[in-house]
Amino acid sequence: QVQLVESGGGLAQPGGSLRLSCAASGSFFTNNVMGWYRQAPGKQRELAATMHTGGNTNYADSVKGRFTISRDNAKNTVYLQMNSLKPEDTAVYYCHFIAGGRQYWGQGTQVIVSS
């Protein structure tokens, strides 16, 4: 099976930065999509950003200009650089992976943005 391990969550002040990482392990196709979804308390899970191995990216409007997704295909790892954080960015961030018609989720990492 494919396993996704996230790291980098934590506490940041408004205007601060955090960088999330997600490493995929197991057996999967070379071409895939990795990214991040987030779920705030009492709200539905929503896309934050995704990136294909070929380089195409997709961002939620709410994070454009502040978050940057990148990936190291050799390491099977995706990153989310989060700058200019706002309290409304507070959520559990879940790594997401699609390959070979199958979908996988990480366990989630908590991000709290508060003074």
What does this protein structure show overall?
The protein has 115 residues and is an all-beta fold. It has strands at 3-7, 10-12, 18-25, 33-39, 46-52, 57-59, 67-72, 77-82, 91-99, 102-105, 109-113. A hairpin with a 4-residue loop joins strand 5 (46-52) and strand 6. The termini are far apart.
Q: Please estimate the helix content.
A: under 10%
Q: How far apart lie the N and C ends?
A: 40 Å
Structural class: mainly beta
Poorly predicted tracts of residues: none
Tally of separate helices: 0
Count of strand segments? 11
Quickly describe the structure:
The chain is mostly beta strands and 115 residues long.
Defining traits:
single chain, seven-stranded mixed beta sheet, mainly beta, 115 residues, four-stranded antiparallel beta sheet
What layout of secondary structure does this protein have?
Elements: E1 3-7, E2 10-12, E3 18-25, E4 33-39, E5 46-52, E6 57-59, E7 67-72, E8 77-82, E9 91-99, E10 102-105, E11 109-113
Parallel strand pairs: 2-11
Antiparallel strand pairs: 1-3, 3-8, 4-5, 4-9, 5-6, 7-8, 9-10, 9-11
